[in-house]
Design a protein that fits this description.
Layout lengths: L4 E6 L22 H16 L10 E7 L6 H8 L3 H9 L15 E7 L19 H7 L19 H5 L5 E7 L7 E7 L4 E3 L2 E13 L5 E3 L4 H10 L10 E7 L7 H11 L1 H5 L4 E4 L2 E3 L4 H8 L7 H11 L7 E2 L19 H10 L4 E11 L5 E11 L6 E6 L2 E2 L12 E7 L2 H10 L17 E2 L1 H21 L50 E5 L3 E6 L12 E9 L8 H4 L15 E5 L1 E7 L2 E6 L5 E5 L7 E8 L2
Parallel strand pairs: 2-10, 12-13, 15-17
Antiparallel strand pairs: 1-7, 2-3, 3-9, 4-5, 4-9, 5-7, 6-7, 7-8, 10-11, 13-14, 13-18, 14-17, 15-16, 19-20, 20-25, 21-24, 21-26, 22-25, 23-24
Helix pairs in contact: 1-7, 7-9
Length: about 625
């Protein structure tokens, strides 16, 4: 039986009351929670890896245990005192607590091997520093502690361990030293401060041995028998002296299943597995570099990454330094990448390779500008490959971490792509730009305050592969259709009549046709730009069209940042220009038009009458606006 006790945080009049705000930072509608949790777990695992003299690869063993592998009485005694607090906390939010079935317990067990464990001082909750992993994990809250190229930086992701449990609870046995018996500890995170028996309690409770001589400091159990009982209770495989941490998450939530866990690893962390930096065992199934493609084919047949992407990745990862094409410095100054940024005749070689659907690698120089310090020269690696299918598959990767929501190539662009930032300076910069969930970069993150020109630097990284694709697509016009065609007139309703050549009579001489005057067709749309706004109205050519309303259409807007140079619509970027969907400063005024959808710089609409008007206000008065519009009569 456990001799550990739960140490609840009692509030006084000086403490704040309320909910667990970091909880909401890890709710992404586009992802199953198992993906979010695995991202956080794997980041910590990859950062904690240690170099092994024998060349062994760090390993993770994940199992979902049922009652046959759990000591029911131990599990019940360890958890049942939490129930009144969980109920009181959840009632503050109008939530119910799933009643745990202690006769049929379950647990998610994640054991990592060849990692450094939770190092640092276990007797000081406020210990600071990169190596204070114990204090940072158990007692840190939005407390950035990692530096340089390390993957998790915001100090918030640890809450996902508790979110994975229906009882909001995590146990851990960590061995940070070969001579250590281990450190046994646990934590429950409540969703809201709460009141129980006339006492108010905070958001955290610790399963520990309180040190009464040290102001009640929660400290881990180090007794060999207590640790051995815990290992037996949850069927742990960790041996004495085996460096790393074994995590136990009691009563995992229902969506944490074997299949969802496998999919999460394949979708989120295929890069470190492919680069042979980790081996994963999930419910008895071992995923390694050698069989990764087989698992992708089995579990991600309709998703990404695709099997074809791994063929591309194989060539990219095999590239040697001499295989890369170096882009000349200063490429970021122009809105478009041109042949001038390559050596003489080199671009023709690149163009030919692209046309042949070869994987091509590039070194893009990128500077970073730490404040109170000289600028640092760095670089990113970019690979691209033309494919037959009109579907883009590309990833931005920092070290081994795929930044899933960074996607800037057109979805229908027929290419595979990879942007890898693993140089020290650029990786550290991007680490500071990551949001708490590590799904996207954001120039407004707190870490960016330590840099000058952060917006420009981030834009350069994002635009590297976009500019490269635009350059290469221009050299392969027969293979790639223009994805943004201007449609400035309403087409005829019926199909065009096929013209037949009139038969020529015997002896008749061809008479050259009279040249027709070059008179432009009257426009169906009038686009009026008055500086801070644009308006779309019927043009003179629209009056003669016999159209049955309603008619659907769309309008696209972009800033013409550098007049006469580059395509404004290709240079558009939602983060740096505007996004109609999330832009309160833009006001839309309509007459006989219904707005169907607003996304980035495009508005889809429905015209209900021939006398229509669409006004968009709120643009920067000092920047020229380009507009294109069209209708769909299909």
């Amino acid at each position: 039986m456990p001799d550990m006790t739960w140490n609840f945080e009692k509030l006084n009049r000086l403490n704040t009351r309320g909910g667990k705000t970091t909880w909401m930072n890890f709710r992404d509608e586009s992802k199953v929670f198992s993906q979010i949790f695995i991202r956080e777990f794997m980041q910590n695992f990859l950062d904690a890896r240690i170099n092994n003299a024998n060349g062994e690869i760090p390993k993770i063993n994940i199992r979902i245990l049922n009652k046959d592998k759990i000591d029911k009485s131990y599990n019940k005694e360890a958890l049942e005192n939490l129930l009144p607090h969980l109920k009181a906390s959840n009632s503050e939010l109008g939530l119910e607590v799933p009643a745990p079935d202690f006769n049929n317990p379950t647990a998610l067990v994640l054991e990592e091997f060849l990692t450094c464990g939770l190092t640092g001082d276990t007797n000081d909750s406020g210990a600071k520093g990169r190596d204070e992993r114990w204090a940072n994990f158990w007692f840190g809250e939005a407390k950035p502690s990692k530096t340089g190229k390390e993957l998790g930086r915001a100090g918030q992701g640890k809450v996902t361990y508790n979110m994975a449990s229906s009882m909001n609870t995590t146990f851990a046995l960590s061995i940070p030293d070969e001579n250590s018996q281990g450190l046994l500890f646990g934590k429950c995170v409540f969703r809201h401060t709460h009141k129980l028996k006339n006492e108010e309690f905070g958001l955290n409770s610790y399963w520990c041995n309180p040190d009464k001589e040290n102001h009640g400091q929660p400290v881990p159990a180090i007794d060999h028998d207590m640790i051995d009982d815990f290992k037996k209770a949850y069927s742990l495989e960790r041996m004495d002296g085996s460096l790393g941490t074994s995590w136990v998450i009691p009563f995992p939530k229902s969506h944490i299943t074997r299949e969802n866990l496998i999919k999460a690893f394949l979708e989120e962390f295929f890069i470190p597995i492919y680069r042979n930096k980790a081996e994963i065992i999930i419910c008895g199934e071992e995923i390694t570099q050698s069989n990764l493609k087989e698992y992708v084919n089995k579990y991600l047949s309709e998703g990404a990454p695709s099997i074809e992407y791994f063929d591309f990745l194989e060539h990219a990862m095999a590239a040697q330094p001499e295989d890369y094409h170096s882009v000349k410095s200063g490429w970021w100054k122009d809105p478009a990448l041109t042949e001038d940024y390559f050596e003489t005749e080199e671009f023709q070689e690149i163009s030919n390779a692209f046309e042949k659907e070869e994987c091509i690698g590039f070194n893009f120089p990128v500077n970073v500008y730490p404040k109170n310090c000289n600028s640092k020269e760095s670089h990113i690696k970019v690979w691209i490959k033309l494919r037959e299918k009109s579907k883009c598959e590309h990833y931005y990767v920092r070290e081994d971490l795929v930044i899933t929501n960074e996607q800037y190539l057109p979805k229908m662009a027929p290419v595979f792509g990879l942007v890898l930032a693993d140089d020290e300076a650029i990786s550290a910069f991007l680490a500071n730009a990551e949001v708490a969930s590590h799904l996207k970069w954001n120039q407004k993150e707190d870490g960016m305050e330590g840099y000058d020109k952060s917006r420009e630097t981030l834009s350069n990284i994002r635009q590297s592969i976009v500019k490269l694709f635009n350059l290469l697509r221009g050299s392969s016009k027969e293979r790639i259709e223009d994805l943004f065609v201007d449609i400035l007139s309403i087409p005829g309703i019926g199909p065009k009549k096929k013209q037949t050549k009139k038969a020529r009579k015997k002896g008749e001489v061809d008479t050259p046709p009279k040249p027709k005057p070059d008179i432009p067709a009257p426009l169906n749309f009038l686009i009026i730009d008055d500086g801070p706004g644009v308006e779309l109205k019927p043009g003179p050519g629209a009056k003669g069209n016999k159209v049955t309303f309603p008619v659907t259409g769309s309008v696209k807007v972009a800033y013409n940042n550098i007049s006469g140079y580059g395509d404004p619509f290709k240079n558009y970027h939602p983060a740096f220009d505007f996004d109609f969907e999330n832009s309160p400063e833009h006001k839309i005024i309509t007459t006989n038009i219904n707005i169907l959808q607003k996304k980035e710089n495009k508005i889809d609409f429905e015209i209900t009458d021939k006398e229509f008007s669409l006004q968009i206000r709120g643009f920067k008065a000092d920047q020229q606006v380009r507009v294109k519009a069209g209708v769909d009569l299909s």
